[in-house]
Amino acid sequence: MQDFTTELAVLASQSLLRTRRVVDGPQGPLLQVEGRDELSFCSNDYLGLANHPAIVGAATTALQRYGMGASASPLISGHSAAHETLEAGLAAFVGMPAALVFGNGYMANLGVAGALVGSGDTVIVDRLAHASLIDGARLSGASLKVFPHNDVQRLEQVLARCKSGRKLVVTDAVFSMDGDLAPLAELAAVCARHEAWLLVDDAHGLGVLGPQGRGSLALAGVSGPHVLCMGTLGKAAGVAGAFVAGAAGVVAWIMQRARTYMFSTAHPPALAAATSASLTLIAREDWRRERLQELSAQLRTGLAGLPWTLLPSSTAIQPLIVGENAAARALAAALRAQGIWVPAICPPTVPKGTARLRISLSALHSGDDVARLVDALTALASGAQA
User: Is 194 one of the catalytic residues?
Assistant: First the structure.
């Protein structure tokens, strides 16, 4: 029987072997990693809420009321009062009639695509869309088409030629490896003209963008019965889970047909209660988003002129393109030797030749934290050029 030793060795030789590191203690700008403190620029806890006492307190109170596990599918006995409250709160938060909570974002994207389209239909995906969107499109059984990244004109051409039954366009709102934004207003207009659904994955925009952090669709002023929003709750919200929001009839249909919802145990009620507390904080505390913008400006100014390319991004995600896999991993290792953790991202997550450091900012980072990273990268660039 094949044990994959050779294949693993090949990955290692290409600087593509992924590893895990053991983190102890709560999330925050400073992590305890395998026995020592490291300054972290690798977390998606953009607003710094993962360890907020109000959220922890809400979860603790809910544990006393509901216990730990939901113990059943939401369509059996797993849907609690905490889930019902959260779904109403999420729908109101993103300005849509209804919402449905899933265990995580991957499950949500797989389930929604399979519920909306199938054989005889078409899914049209942005070339840089998240793996869960691509996998959802493939598993749906619909015909899969890809349009160039953020190319609205090409999308319109594809839709104009499409003669299938239902049409579903899927895209990230904030692209997780580049930090750029989808042209959502233009995409929504094209979809409306061609009677296509638009599914927007706002995993990295929810909480960070838009008025009161209500997300990328709110920032773009996009709404309509043909628009669906998927948001994750383990990034800026600081908890876990995901949801899809949209027109009430569409969400009701997804609940009836999304296999990843129907055949999965509901996520714990305590997490639902914690997320409801998080939504209150997100809407109320604008300073967290303002802080992210200040830190982003500081970082971009500090890294200007270095030999690596910092992609344009107005979000908490700041990608520094290094190029080759080994060079990106070596740069990440050099930072780690100084107690700074910035992950190297390599293919297949990003295109070949674009390995990068993915710098993630948090509202809890200080100016000194960012200055420390800038100084370290500047020194490493000087050493590489010497």
Answer: no
